[in-house]
Amino acid sequence: MAAxxxxxxxxxxxxxxxxRGTRFWPASxxxxxxxxxxxLGDRPLLRxxxxxxxxxxxxxxxxxxxxxxxxxxxxxxVPELPKENLLLEPxxxxxxxxxxxxxxxxxxxxxxxxxxxxxxxxxxxxxVEFRRLLEAAAAxxxxxxxxxxxxxxxxxxxxxxxxxxxxxxCGHVRSVPVHRVAGFREKPDRxxxxxxxxxxxxxxxxxxxxxxxxTILKAxxxxxxxxxxxxxxxxxxxxxxxxxxxxxxxxxxxxxxxxYGVIEKAEAVYAIQAAFGWDxxxxxxxxxxxxxxxxxxxxxxGDLIALQSTGCLVDAPDKLVAxxxxxxxxxxxxxxxxxxxxxxxxxxxxxxxxxxxxxRGGQCL
Length: 365
Fold this sequence. Notes:
Structural class: alpha/beta
């Protein structure tokens, strides 16, 4: 029986961990953003992302792309990763530069391996099924210049996710059906999301991708030639040990997402349907949805007394919080800052961060 791509050392994991998690203020800060926090338990989200991969991909083949200022914190969370497996961005430039840089690194290091690109801050409850489908996606990507994504079967008409329109099944790999992607849709309104759910062919975009290193580099060259040229200059500067020049060139890279810049324009895009308890944990409201609650629907981390109150999330591990006669609130206390907002307004927390930057000189960031 032929070895799998994971077994023969040809599958690498690339975890994107450079985000700032502004919707999770005040817990998420510049030096300790969402992916480095134990948002959903006792371990940081980044730690959970690495542990999901480890049975399939060993530490020496897991790369983490993160901000240079987060290097120490990341290393403390995943000490088993070799130092050279941390790719440190001097400045966040969105996912296309992040992925392109990782692909160039892998090409120089390992030839043309398959790379699985994963966000650091998502929830996946069924890790076994996740690895099964990831390995199937790697086997499909290995067969040619194929861009593969894992598409999440929607459970409800979500308006906060982008959608993938799946075409007909075009084949099977390891008994897993593979579909051509017919198109991508931006975040819909409620009526459109309900129509997507009824149609049965629209799936949530997980942001999880699998492809050969050469395939994504060709796609970037075709659809983002300016970025490709910039990445070539960056690699040249790094190979010659010109660190300051490399930082300058990185900051000049086109800031664009891999979805908008490449995936939505490419032709050979495939999707594997996935159902493994996925959530992008994009806001405090999403945290509320994922954790246990009392009989009145209140959830807390810390000591909570809730009288005549329902549907609240309290994150204040170091103090007693008492609620009286309130509904559907989020309360987050970090000692130097206190957030109180309605659950249905949790996406707007990022606006507080902008106000702090603009009007408070970066206070509490």
